[in-house]
Specification:
single chain; 326 residues; alpha/beta; Four Helix Bundle (Hemerythrin (Met), subunit A); Rossmann fold; 2 domains; seven-stranded mixed β-sheet; three-stranded antiparallel β-sheet; 12 strands; 42% helix
């Protein structure tokens, strides 16, 4: 098995669709067809599960080689999103102990189903917990297009609470368009604002709810670029700033001193060809880091916790031997 351009190419192997499953999922994550940390994690786990379901062959060594290549291709599609790392590694956990390809395939399929189900339930639990913080008459702000954050808002609306939402445009991909559409279709009173209007509006906001792509062991949050600006504006305005994040977005690698890689995307997302002089440089980071001191609480499926609690939750969930591998 060779990896060329992050696409799997089967070499001297029976023609099977497994490489297409991995390549297609990887590309859909990379080109932002699949967005949001939770959705990305579920897509990665599901791809590995489908890889196992359609895999042909009985040679265990060849299977391990193919699985390693498939795993790397999926993980390389979004290096910043630890949710993807955790989703994939939850899926492959226990495979090393399999005695046969059939047993390994069963482990992968079972783990993939379990992770996706656990992820969906986590979002539902976060919605119920977070909705308690929204009161009648409140003004709420959100950023980008987080399924966990939107779950909180929609749950509060489902409970009959009357409030309004301000959603940022979230350039350059304008995920805010997806957010306001989803909220409007749910019947929520929602207003779209440009990103640079955040501080102007913040004094009228009661709570901010954002998602997370990665949460470090010391409680910092890596999320869509612009999140830290919301946090700073909320801190200045004494507005509660809540992060909605499943615990599988906690990064065990940061416990060992690893830095979170901030992905930079194509300049074409910012300007059209020929729109500015070629000598002008463009910096297009996808994420930024919000320090723990600007976060009032992280809403997880195990409860609303302070950023300082992240490390202890990691240790409790992962045990002394964290499944960190190079």
């Amino acid at each position: 098995m060779e990896i060329t351009g992050n696409l799997l190419i089967s070499v001297k192997r029976d023609a099977v669709p497994v490489q297409d499953i991995i390549a297609e999922t990887s590309e859909r994550i990379r080109d932002m067809t699949i967005r949001g940390a939770g959705r990305i994690a579920r897509a990665g786990a599901d791809a590995i599960g489908r890889f196992a379901e359609t895999y042909q062959g009985n040679d265990m060594e060849v299977f391990r080689e193919d699985l390693r290549a498939a795993t790397r291709t999926i993980l390389d599609s979004r290096p910043t999103a630890v949710s993807l790392w955790n989703g994939v590694h939850s899926t492959i956990m226990g495979v090393d102990d399999a005695a046969s390809v059939d047993q390994a395939r069963e482990i992968l399929m079972r783990n993939a189903r379990a992770f996706c189900e656990r992820s969906e339930k986590a979002v539902e639990t976060i919605a119920r917990i977070g909705a308690k913080r929204i009161r009648d008459g409140d003004s709420v702000m959100t950023h980008c297009n987080s399924s966990a954050a939107l779950g909180v808002i929609k749950e509060a609306h489902r409970q009959g609470k009357e409030f309004r939402v301000f959603a940022t445009e979230s350039r350059p991909w304008r995920q805010g368009i997806l957010t306001v559409t989803e909220l409007a279709e749910a019947g929520v009173d929602v207003t779209l604002i440009i990103d640079s209007a955040v501080r102007y509006v913040m004094n009228d906001i009661d709570e901010v709810f954002v998602g997370a792509d990665t949460i470090t062991s010391h409680g910092a949050v890596i999320n869509k670029i612009g999140t830290s600006q919301l946090a700073l504006a909320a801190h200045e305005a004494r507005t509660n700033f809540f992060v909605c994040g499943e615990t599988y977005k906690f990064s065990p690698m940061t416990m060992f001193g690893d830095m979170v890689e901030i992905e930079e995307r194509e300049t074409s997302e910012v300007v059209r060809p020929g729109e500015i002089p070629e000598s002008v440089k463009i910096f297009n980071p996808v994420f930024d880091s919000t320090p723990a001191q600007y976060i009032d609480a992280i809403i997880t499926e195990v409860g609303m916790v302070p950023p300082t609690a992240v490390y202890s939750i990691m240790v409790r969930q992962l045990g002394d031997a964290v499944f960190y591998k190079e």
